[in-house]
Amino acid sequence: MYRISPFVRHFALALLGGAGIATLWVNLSPGSYYDFVEWHMAELSLPGWIWAGTVTLTPFMVVTDILMALFFFFIGKELWEALILERGALSGGRALLPAGLVVSGMIGAALMWIVLSALIETAEEAGFATGWQVPLGSDVVLAYLFGRLAFGSGHPALHLLLLLAIGTDILALLVLGLSSPHLSLRLLWLVLPVAASGAVWALYGRRPPPGTSELRRRAGMALWPYMLAGAASWFGVAASGLPATLGLLPVIPAIAHADRSFGLFAEAETFLHDPLNRLAHLLIRPVAVVLFLFGLVRGGVDLLAFAPTTLVTLGSLWIGRPLGMALGALGLALVFGLRLPPQVRLRHLGLILVILGCGFTVPAIALAAALPGGAMQEAARMGLALSLLAGPLALLLARSGGR
Predict the structure, then answer these.
(1) Which of 140, 159, 197, 284 is placed for a possible disulfide with 165 were both Cys, Cβ 3.0 to 4.6 Å?
(2) Distance CA 357, CA 387 (A)
């Protein structure tokens, strides 16, 4: 296995740094914190055929819907390479086990949320299954932070952990968008990202045929066509009503890429100069800043917000997801005869399930859409913060049981 680049650890530290500052701020001066997060930077009046009503730009909206699209492009690129490149971790039949674990873990988290909500939820604004989308996602960068400490930077278990975290986060956001009660014919806007991706692939993304001129080859290495296609893709996804954070993903398959996968976030990719890897290299520092800002606007935890919703969130992440994944792994082994990757043992899988009990980035995005505002959201956010204790627990288990 190739070593994973250390910049992913910097992403995790930036996210935690922003969340730590936000937590201090919201508890010392909650009024000024919420004034900052909800500050009306600008009002955009768009034509009705694009968007019904006025779009208000706030730090909350700019970071979540616009800037975080860069982060999901970054992790989406890794998932795409794992699926389609030679030696990709998900190429061929190797995708079945991770896909089954991702889906079973999400089902387990959602069902546990529904059961616990019915048993202990007391909020008046909560209806049946309100907020079941919240625990579906996980957190890629924090999974890496704890997984690297538990397994080491080159262990196959760390690669499996990252595959599961990336797949879970992207699928969770898609489910969040598709389960929205406000979906309508605006989904026709998805024609725009499809058209933009198809056009840029036809003009620039295909491998040039033999005998192509040097001028044409250099044009194929340019980045600006993909940036324009990405902007059009983001606009189409946002206008469709799906989470705008996914807006750059449709253009990834259209970008010229390397022939071989070196593993998730591999250090070896530093030496690759295809357009897809060059775009990823350019995004490393901006994404670290974006994650810090995300922690700042989404990570402020009110320490007095503990409520039944906090326990519902914790139970879904700590019990529902691991239980769902464990049952999924058992089912895949019995029905399809699937086994864990080489050098990954059952104890490693157990540690992976514990680490995936951490939920922060994607669940924090889901809070605003899935839960009524106010006390329920803040109680759930506290549950997400407490869920991060699963990371240190996994490290204790790793130290006591060996790697």
Answers:
(1) 140
(2) 6
| 376 within 8 A of 126, measured Cβ to Cβ | yes
Alpha-carbon separation of residue 276 from 84, 89, 149, 285 (angstroms): 14, 18, 29, 16
CA–centroid distance for 138 within its chain: 7
pTM of the model: 0.91
Q: Using alpha carbons only, what angle is made at residue 378 by residues 373 and 384, rounded to the nearest 5 degrees?
A: 125
Calculate the alpha carbon distances from 194 to 119, 240, 250, 313 in Å. Answer: 44, 12, 7, 36
Are residues 302 and 380 in contact, defined by beta-carbon separation less than 8 angstroms?
A: no
Count of CB atoms within 10 A of residue 85's CB?
17
3-state secondary structure the chain: CCCECCHHHHHHHHHHHHHHHHHHHHHHCHHHHHHHHCCCCEEEECCCCCCCCEEEECHHHHHHHHHHHHHHHHHHHHHHHHHHCECCCCCHHHHHHHHHHHHHHHHHHHHHHHHHHHHHCCCCCCCCCCCCCHHHCCCHHHHHHHHHHHHCCCCHHHHHHHHHHHHHHHHHHHHHHHCCCCCCHHHHHHHHHHHHHHHHHHHHHCCCCCCCCHHHHHHHCCCHHHHHHHHHHHHHHHHHCCCHHHCCHHHHHHCCCCCECCCCCEHHHHHCCCHHHHHHHHHHHHHHHHHHHHHHHHCCCCCCCCCHHHHHHHHHHHHHHHHHHHHHHHHHHHHHCCCCCCCCCHHHHHHHHHHCCCCCHHHHHHHHHHCCCCHHHHHHHHHHHHHCCHHHHHHHHHHHHCC
What's the rounded Cα separation, in Å, for the pair 153 and 138? 20
Vertex 247: Cα angle to 364 and 22 (nearest 5) = 30
Give 211's pLDDT tier (boundaries 50, 70, 90): low
Q: What is the pLDDT of residues 20-64, one digit of tens each?
A: 999 999 999 999 999 999 999 888 877 776 776 678 899 999 999
Q: State the average pLDDT over residues 179-201.
A: 85
Sign of CA pseudo-dihedral 136, 142, 147, 152: positive
